[in-house]
Specification:
CATH architecture of the largest domain in chain A: 2-Layer Sandwich
CATH topology of the largest domain in chain A: Nucleotidyltransferase, domain 5
Strand order of the largest sheet of chain A: 3-2-1-4-5
Radius of gyration of chain A: 21 Å
Oligomer: homodimer
CATH superfamily of the largest domain in chain A: ATPase, nucleotide binding domain
Order of helices and strands of chain A: EEEHHEHEHEEEHHHHHHHEHEHH
Strand content of chain A: 15-25%
Mean pLDDT of chain A: 93
CATH class of the largest domain in chain A: Alpha Beta
């Protein structure tokens, strides 16, 4: 660890916002800054750089420094080798950090969720993905192939399957379900045919469908067997994602913490209970937990680890200074 | 039947072309005309009317008449009550026919496939749907809810599931499959990651995915068990569509002809054999057949039936004059 290091940083940049956190090498949080979106596939590379700069400059206020020694930038949309090449070239002359490290946003979420220790995360928001890191710092990601080809257990997929259950009821293929009334209310319609107009005519079709996920989880909470079944089948696929991560990381014989991230899990036991049941069937030592820290802290922890700091020694400092910030 | 009737017509209008067929009331085909697309959701109402006019005027050549007595127009995109209201209003002052009758394109396909007799059709092209008509002329349609919410067994769904199998192989979730090499070749890629760019970046994403269906059916023909399984599972859903149509039409105790329409069935026995197996499991008297006539002829037959002609009496005339046309 270089004693010249004073400040490390972590950035979590996504489709809705950019967050920067700065720490000293003892893990004390020195500042935090927010800015607009920085998924460059969505807002373009110039807006991405601007948002990242803004979040850093805000977090540098009151510190009396103009540069970060080691900055880890976690970004949504860094999916392919081509993405990495492009983003690294675009940041070649970046003047606010001495060292830059780009990571897929699932990695910093993973580091944050387990405070840098080995573990697995499963994200089920609009989309879904599972990822893990083991004691050799080997990283693996499974799933996350988007709304058409993946996103098992995501809000989009739950909403989509809810709509399909309603249309199966209409067709006379499936039994009637309490999902129907909820989706009619949410879409503001009173006719099955209008589903087509509302969904295929939506400007942001993926978000529109994802917004219907609570219609399924709420119906399940009321005991609707079709909704319960949809959730269980999707959690079976999520469980398979988690199991595959663990297998590929040679973690099957260990105690494994699985942190649940994303809006789908906020539905509570109706979702989490299903996932627990699935994981128990694998007869492995999984424990479902809440993430310890958010992804921006995860990025900063990655910076600390990269310069040789042992996170175990400073985790209390992070916790204490995080509380003080609020 | 009015003796003043001289000419009836049938139009099949879709996203790629418009076809008009004229007959006398003995079922002799008098003319045929072609024009561009007439799915008004795609090309707009003005182009739709233009295409329909053009196909009629072409088919009226050499007949010495300027007007059709009874014209049935089967149109893609006539899905909701709102669609019917709109299209009927748009054709209020149509001067090339004394009587107009608008039908969803699946109805004229159904009439054509069984020459106006009771029966079921199953369409599996880019999308999918099943429909049937019984001896009381009751009509039922099941499925057909589009690429996100339905289209079971369609080329889109086969292509989508083929892609998912390839990504499951990449993730280490599923076994390796012969679908992979075929999809790589078809997309012109040599890396799994490029799938995402090629599919989500495609200009016409549904058609792009549907174009991959042969990668699945070809792999199945070579004995790939993952491909075979995908096809069987999708044909289970198609079988359920057919069964639901038959049930809702009170046809479960009858011999039922099911006409197969659309590109997916052109893959042959690898698909049709699966569907037959599924239907046999229902223990019902289904017979899978080729459609007797195309949808444009179906629309003309509907016109004949509407003015009281018994199709049984004139079916030979249709057949003979159809051959003469080519």
């Amino acid at each position: 660890m270089g004693d010249w290091m004073k400040i490390v940083g972590g950035i979590d940049g996504g489709a809705t916002k950019t967050e920067c956190v700065l720490m000293d090498i003892q893990g004390n949080i020195l500042g935090r800054g927010l800015a607009g979106p920085s998924n460059y596939h969505v807002v373009g590379i110039n807006n991405t750089i601007k948002a990242i700069r803004k979040s850093i400059i805000e977090s540098l206020k009151n510190i009396g420094e103009r540069k970060i020694d080691y900055l880890t930038i976690g970004l949504a949309g860094l999916d392919t080798k081509r993405d990495f090449k492009y983003i690294e070239r675009s940041f070649q002359n970046f003047d606010l950090a001495n060292r830059l490290d780009f990571k897929h946003d699932s990695i910093i979420a993973l580091i944050g969720a387990h405070a840098g220790k080995p573990g697995i995360i499963v994200i089920a928001g609009t989309g879904s993905v599972a990822a893990g890191i083991n004691r050799d710092k080997k990283y693996v990601r499974v799933g996350g192939w988007g709304y058409l080809l993946g996103d098992e257990g995501s809000a989009f997929t739950l909403g989509r399957r809810g709509l399909m259950a309603v249309l199966r009821e209409y067709d006379g293929r499936g039994a009637s379900t309490k999902i129907t009334r909820r989706i009619f209310d949410k879409l503001g319609i009173d006719d099955y045919e209008d589903i087509i107009i509302k969904i295929y005519g939506a400007e942001r079709i993926v978000e529109k469908v994802a917004s219907l996920a609570p219609c399924v989880t709420d119906a399940a909470k009321e005991g609707d067997s079709i909704a319960i079944n949809i959730i269980y089948e999707e959690m079976e696929k999520v469980g398979e994602l988690i199991y595959t991560v663990a297998k590929r990381l040679d973690m099957l014989d260990e105690d494994i913490s699985v942190a649940m991230i994303g809006g789908v899990f906020r539905a509570g036991e109706v979702v989490i209970g299903s996932l627990r049941k699935v994981l128990n069937r694998y007869e492995l030592k999984f424990k479902l937990i809440e993430p310890l820290f958010p992804p921006s802290i995860g990025a900063a922890i990655w910076s600390l680890q990269s310069i040789g700091v042992k996170v175990n020694d400073i985790i209390n400092n992070i916790e204490n200074s995080l509380e003080m910030l609020d």
